[in-house]
Write a structure and sequence with these properties.
Blueprint: E1 16-21, H1 28-37, E2 41-45, H2 51-68, E3 73-77, E4 92-94, E5 100-104, E6 114-116, H3 120-125, E7 131-134, E8 139-146, E9 150-157, E10 160-162, E11 167-168, H4 181-192, E12 197-200, H5 206-216, E13 221-226, H6 229-233, H7 235-241, E14 244-248, H8 249-255, H9 261-274, E15 279-282, H10 297-309, E16 313-316, H11 318-321, H12 326-342, H13 344-352, H14 361-375, E17 380-384, H15 389-396, E18 403-407, H16 410-416, E19 422-426, H17 433-446, E20 455-461, E21 470-477
Parallel strand pairs: 1-2, 1-16, 2-3, 3-12, 5-6, 12-13, 13-14, 14-15, 15-16, 17-18, 17-20, 18-19
Antiparallel strand pairs: 4-10, 5-9, 7-8, 7-11, 8-9, 20-21
Amino acid sequence: MVSKSNKIITRKRQTKILATLGPASSSPEMIRKLILAGVDNFRLNFSHGTHEDHAERLKIIRQMEQEFQTPIGIVADLQGPKLRVGRFKEGSIKLKKGMKIRFDLDKTEGDETRVNLPHPEIIGAVDIGDELLIDDGKVRVVIDFKGSDHLVVKVISGVKMSNNKGVNVPGVVLPIAALTKKDRKDLAAALDMNVDWIAQSFVQQPKDVAEARKLIQGRAGLIAKIEKPAALETFDEILDLVDGIMLARGDLGVEIPPEDVPAVQKRIIRQVRQAGKPIIVATQMLESMIENPAPTRAEASDVATAVYDGTDAVMLSAETAAGDYPLEAVSIMDRIAQRTEKDETYHRIIEDDKLRVLENSSDAITAAAHEVAKNVNAASIVNYTSSGSTALRSARLRPFVPILCMTQNHEVARKLALSYGVHPVHVTDVNDIDEAIIKAKVMVKDRKIAKTGQRIVLTAGVPFGTPGSTNSLRVSWVD
């Protein structure tokens, strides 16, 4: 909602919404409406559009940020390698179970007997008996013969194969760099635009994100997209090297059994939350709303499940980028998150899921603030932070009251827009803890987070403003 006295946005939920911009949502008017409908962060999908397109959208978002006095996070999503079959003379071929097709490096248009597979890395990495999944698993083939420069595959299922459909190779780590030449250009452009986050696709191993982190050099946060089964095998190491995780269930679900996806989602969310980093649940959340004004009941349940699992954010892709009903998609996602967070079952799940308190004074103070806020029925937890680490520690505990985070760093405020329950605010005139309390009282009232007569719990560090030195806790009445 937007306060009538000003344009400051106050959400009625803790879970954040990340929406993708595209042809259906690029005008200033539509971006403003999306923010009002519930969007907290925007995704720029570098698989589509030009750098100029993305720069113009980013400029609009920053203007809206000023209008609504609310930091807005921007995620630049890199395309990554795209594994695809080539083209057919007739655009597609019909398939029958048991028929055999040659996949080779010849770029000539294909037919019912052969087609181009322009990826020698796949040919080299697979073995006889391995499966390939084409067109998101609609076509399944098994490798019947392997040559030095081609494969012969036998169709297991599927009725049609058409031009440029994607190829997945489940269970095989492919010797393909996660960052393509295009990705490197896009990464440089995104950093020059001052995006807040870089989302890296096709992550298979820790070395993939280590390379991206080296190129980013701290100019943005790094999010690893978990969409390959190989990433699950080395997830601990990958998580250590990144600042956040995006669980891309649609892509991941093509290569692992669908019955495994819910358990993986729960495990990944909890592990990332324990690490105190933001986790985004993405892909196919309200997919039917690309063409329909309302979601299926299964989709509504899927969004709610991600909230029950404790995710920081839920993401919309084509629903807002290219769909017919972008505003409706954001609105229903906002309503589902609000309703779920009010449910007693949600409260019980979060309360019962006790996280380990880290062995340092800052984490101990943050955990204490969480307990004190519950015991005194505080309206908000307030953090004053330089690096954002205090707010991340607060968010990992999933408090049921908003976290007002004051920081003197614009970039930190924007990154925190992705974290559960955090209301980031950029401040410039706070020099000690007493001034922080005075400022916090005004801000919680302006944002309709608390009102006169309620209490807030504030944490900060002494010496004041020193990164990583959270060592003070105050309880104060809002007057």
